[in-house]
Amino acid sequence: MTPQHRPRKQVHLAAHFPGVNNTTVWTDPESGSQIDFSSFRHLARTAERGRFDFFFLAEGLRLRERKGHIHDLDVVGRPESLTVLAALAAVTDHLGLAATVNTTFNEPYELARRFATLDHLSGGRAAWNVVTSSDAFTGENFRRGGYLDHADRYTRAAEFVQLARALWDSWPPAEPPRTLTHTGPQFDITARSTLPRPPQGHPVVIQAGDSDEGREFAARHADIIFSRHSTPEAGRAFHADVRRRLRKYGRGPDDLKIMPAAGFVLGDTDADAEERAVAIRHQQVGPQTAIALLENVWGRDLSGYDPDGPLPDIDPVPDSDVVRGWAHSGDRFGIASRWRAVAEEKKLSIRELAVELTARQAFVGSPATVAAAIDEAVRTDVADGFILVPHLTPGGLDDFVDRVVPLLQERGVFRTEYQGPTLRHHLGLPAPRPLPDEEVTA
């Protein structure tokens, strides 16, 4: 088939409900509740009106703290995701429903049952974003505490997902349920499912992570990767790398969708949108947030520093709990050194550096410019689509659905109607292959 006759690559879109990060502009007069059901309902219905693939919720198992006090970004609280999605299943008809749930502080039998329940209640629209944690601070909320070594988090996650899939497969259609027996490094169970196989076979599995072990985990287990890349070049390199890894697990290139998080700012003109974007970024990263970001790396109380002044000239403290619940990766001294180099090269203050460091990929411009940029990114394999993160809740997606989606539809790269009942239909994913018989014993 010649390039000019090849079908246009279709764009996949999802909507992230912002409320567990510094994306939301809390001070905007249009910013609504983060916990009222009306907010979740409005954003989900807007996403469904826009024919999006799914609605995505993050997870917060413990409120972040700064010097023993709840951080400003968490004072609204964090509802439990699967409860919210079960309620949304009753007020939506087609939209996929994705929850982030941790494999460290849950058990396979219970979680497989909860996702199977959501898949049955929604008619095949459930998705699970698999995340890991070795965070002892979060673990204090749980019986086992921070028992899990960092090196074991993906070992547990892989065994956890394998068990969940086996449980979903253990009650085939028109057959009695089978008993699942499993003995492994993390789990030793004998279980019988209380539900028949879910409508999708397996709820869609999403993985968020960019490390080498995260990429390998996704290539073997995931249907979607929720990634974060700030440049097209980085996105294409990630896309190609993960696609290469699929082959070793007998998977094809269409078996996994790569969907980075992305912000967006619309304006009547590109210049108008650019001006709005600068203002929004500075609203998202206030002075206290900027200082807290540095404290997380420096491990020191930096409240005496001016957010609009230079970075601290003191060294980090290796082990500290000044800020708790915010993950940081790598060596504190190395991170601080790199941040100083960036700030010095670009003449950035603490707050300006924080604005730059926390920026995610964003589409900024008129509706026509944004539609063209999304189409180009998908066409050139930067990604297969995007999980859009609005800066306002609950109405932040309205403008995109009203002004950008019709242009994508005119280009022939986005659906005008849903073509199937399940989330796997929306994403064009194959039916899951049941695990080998030896994984499930009668």
TrEMBL record:
Its EC number is 1.14.-.-. One of its GO terms (molecular function) is monooxygenase activity. Residues 30-380 form the Luciferase-like domain. InterPro entries: Diverse_substr_monoxygenases (IPR051260), Luciferase-like_dom (IPR011251), Luciferase-like_sf (IPR036661), NTA_MOA (IPR016215). Gene3D superfamilies: Luciferase-like domain. Keywords: Flavoprotein, FMN, Monooxygenase, Oxidoreductase. The keyword Flavoprotein applies. Belongs to the NtaA/SnaA/DszA monooxygenase family. NCBIfam families: FMN_nitrolo (TIGR03860). PANTHER family: ALKANESULFONATE MONOOXYGENASE-RELATED, C2H2 FINGER DOMAIN TRANSCRIPTION FACTOR (EUROFUNG)-RELATED. This is NtaA/DmoA family FMN-dependent monooxygenase. The lineage of its organism: Bacteria, Bacillati, Actinomycetota, Actinomycetes, Kitasatosporales.
